[in-house]
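Sorry to interrupt, but I need a hand with the structure work. Could you write out one complete protein record for me, on any chain you like? Could you add the entry underneath, on a fresh line?
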Amino acid sequence: MDSGLVGAGKQLLHVDIYIDEHQPSRGILALLSRLRPNWKAQDIQMKTFTEGITNQLIGCYVGSLLEPGCVLVRLYGKMTELYVNRDHEVEMFQILHAHRCGPEIYCSFQNGICYEFVRGTVLDDKLLQQPSIYRLIAAEMGKIHSIQPKSGRPVKPVLWTKMSHFLKLVQSSVSSSPAGQWYIGSSADLQKVPSFKTLSQEMESLKRHLSEIDSPTVLCHNDLLTKNIIYNEKEGMVKFIDYEYADYNYQAFDIGNHFNEFAGVNDVNYDLYPSWELQRDWLTAYLESYKHSTGREVTVTEAEVTQLYIQVCKFSLASSFLWGLWAILQSRFSSIDFDFQRYATARLNFYFEKKEEYFGLAVN
């Protein structure tokens, strides 16, 4: 049975199939018989992409991955429906595709979606430091940030809603000691995390401080780690993928979040955080693109770069805190083989380490 899901004014095909994450090929073949009826089952090849730490991603093709028509099948991670609005994700896919900033989405199914394969390679962490590439990323983000909400409706930044939702989920899922101390991990490897009271106070402190900063609300990716950036060297372009967290948010959050991702995911190393010189160059390329895409004078002043730099430093704190909460949740629910405990500790430690320094920066 198929039905339609409405998003961004266009109906999306919904195929009523559940795909087993442990043995996905049978379900995928049934799905492809609808999407690619001309493909013969015996000719279909599948490649599992292992970069993601939330979902499973499988590329399906006949002949070569580089030929048009290749389909990506994404199986949602365990319990991710707790903190990802899947209908909203579909709408973001359709909006970004309509503005030529993202791939076409083909269909949804019970536990995932299918969409167009974006040609290129997943960006390597080291390439983030390369000027010719980071300027492309900055320009692409500026273009996405310029996309206006349909019908000019007022939009609110999603940050505080998302953060308080994560915190409530953490409160209900993490075990605590009689003294109120929280722990994550197995009984053999318990990790101490800040108490609910401490985390609540920190969230209120962040909200109080950052709400005073005049950062525009724009359409953000909100999760721009290297594995969500596809680099096409031949065409000299980058595209962003995976819109689970895409939504309207503070401009400086999206940039600060991306800068945090320079530290990596598997082995978080904040020595790789971008220098002031790199950030200044990145932010200049971003502002040129953002101004051009919003139809304004493209000249960028040193004062504008400095102001945005300070805003980005401050909002990077919110990014560290948010993904720290997310990783605590993932350590509780995810079936993916990844050390979420260590990741949560790294993100929250960096937040506490930088808080005073970044809060102390004066905004013009």
Summary: Confidence is low (pLDDT under 50) at residues 1-8. Residues 302-333 form the longest helix (32 residues). The CA atoms of residues 310 and 363 lie 7 Å apart.
